[in-house]
Amino acid sequence: MSEYTTEVKDLPTIEAVDITNYLVLQTSYYTRQQMKAFKSLEAYNFFVSGWVHNLGTKRLRDGYSLVFARSAVMAKLQGFEFWRKTLKEARYVVAPMVDQSELAWRLLSRRHGAQLCYTPMLHAQVFVRDANYRRENLYNEVCEEDSPLIAQFCANDPEVFLQAALLAQDYCDAIDLNLGCPQMIAKRGHYGVFLQDEWDLLEKMVSLANEKLKVPITCKIRVFKEVEKTVRYAQMLENAGCQLLTVHGRTKDQKGAMTGIASWEHIKAVRQAVNIPVFANGNIQHLSDVERCIQETGVQGVMSAEGNLHNPALFEGRSPPVWEMAEEYLEVVKRYPPCTLSYVRAHLFKLWHHTLQIHQDLREELAKVKTLEGLADVSKQLRLRCQLEILCFVPFAPLLRLSHLICFYLIVSLNPVSFNFPLQGNKCVFSLCRGCCKKKAYKEVADCPSHGLRFKTKAEKRKAEEKEQAERSTTEVERSDHIPQPLQDSRRELEEPRLLL
């Protein structure tokens, strides 16, 4: 009971095995009607008056028991105390991922070393107005094994964000505000990283949530290009009441083909400037990268998104066979339903990303199946093919040729110094990656043979064609000027339409 206030530490409670984030009074099992009557007893009120809110009944085994939200009696921990006591000093963190960090995937990741997980990003406005959305995306996913857990919301209105957080706080250990999503849908919805320049609004959102919630408020951000501005941004959020900050070391524009390398330099500067725990996000391919990131930046933990999707055993330091992780994931999905089939299919595409480039027919079959059993059959086929491939090729081929059989995530370079010019090309005329080179070559109308870019050549060809066309037109005009007048009149008569009488 060390996490609770001293005033209620002697409250006679137990933690129910089948209810997470709730405390259950040590009472006998009664019927629902008897429990309702029991709520009004003075003896009961004596124990909980002033401390317990949101009373309710939950069915446990063969009867009902009085329950109340854990947050009702928890002391609201802050900063490093929150990280130490509630999050258990978590170092290995699974990122919030839209349609990807659902319960089954979180449980799989926890089995393989993850110490803290986030829910998928939830839309605050939809969460407030739609009870089904709340049940499907949070309430029905409450599980004892899935702890500690942080629920993430996207929002652009302080009141709506607060309402959503109040509805979610009894089902998680903290509420996170998404200030890092760079996708076009976030731009259209005006949330995520596209609130990055609206400091007054963000300050109000964080401070209001910090004031009203019983659980801590955290934030996930992206960096500005300038280190100093990034530091001021982080300090503003800390002063507003943010108790833990996750810093993704990429800018708003670093996405898709322009993703590039995350800047650990920015993350280190933020960590040194604030007095709250900081998680780093970006450039994580293997467990050794996690340890190196912690050592170089001084952060309390490291968050993984893409790396975790390609290899859920990343935090164990293993790269297991692709079929092993897929089969274990499908087993978890069956054990903890319901899980949307599209989520499961998307996870299998990530796990088998390299393998399906070789077995194209299985890729097509995976896209077509519409049942969990069908996905399991595809997984079985893939395992048999991979095992046969190992038997046939191990004695004769280098290990690299079999790399598609294991879970791994690859980014070309992990050099934080190349923050402004990521993934340098060896033969590129600008010494840039293809994405950056294409942008620069287009702007400067230049060529880059190594990347197959011919902007200058095409422009010169286009100008030559236009010049040739202009010269041809001029020549035709000059020729017409030298035609004798009688011939011009005859030509005009031939060109004019004649009326048939």
From TrEMBL:
<dbReference type="Pfam" id="PF01207">
    <property type="entry name" value="Dus"/>
</dbReference>
<keyword id="KW-0963">Cytoplasm</keyword>
<dbReference type="GO" id="GO:0005737">
    <property type="term" value="C:cytoplasm"/>
</dbReference>
<feature type="region of interest" description="Disordered">
    <location>
        <begin position="457"/>
        <end position="501"/>
    </location>
</feature>
<dbReference type="GO" id="GO:0017150">
    <property type="term" value="F:tRNA dihydrouridine synthase activity"/>
</dbReference>
<protein>
    <recommendedName>
        <fullName>tRNA-dihydrouridine(16/17) synthase [NAD(P)(+)]-like</fullName>
        <ecNumber>1.3.1.88</ecNumber>
    </recommendedName>
</protein>
<comment type="function">
    <text>Catalyzes the synthesis of dihydrouridine, a modified base found in the D-loop of most tRNAs. Specifically modifies U16 and U17 in cytoplasmic tRNAs. Affects the level of some mature tRNA and thereby the total cellular translation.</text>
</comment>
<keyword id="KW-0539">Nucleus</keyword>
<keyword id="KW-0520">NAD</keyword>
<keyword id="KW-0560">Oxidoreductase</keyword>
<feature type="domain" description="DUS-like FMN-binding">
    <location>
        <begin position="94"/>
        <end position="372"/>
    </location>
</feature>
<keyword id="KW-0521">NADP</keyword>
<dbReference type="GO" id="GO:0005634">
    <property type="term" value="C:nucleus"/>
</dbReference>
<keyword id="KW-0819">tRNA processing</keyword>
<dbReference type="InterPro" id="IPR013785">
    <property type="entry name" value="Aldolase_TIM"/>
</dbReference>
<dbReference type="InterPro" id="IPR035587">
    <property type="entry name" value="DUS-like_FMN-bd"/>
</dbReference>
<keyword id="KW-0285">Flavoprotein</keyword>
<feature type="compositionally biased region" description="Basic and acidic residues">
    <location>
        <begin position="462"/>
        <end position="482"/>
    </location>
</feature>
<feature type="compositionally biased region" description="Basic and acidic residues">
    <location>
        <begin position="489"/>
        <end position="501"/>
    </location>
</feature>
<comment type="similarity">
    <text>Belongs to the Dus family. Dus1 subfamily.</text>
</comment>
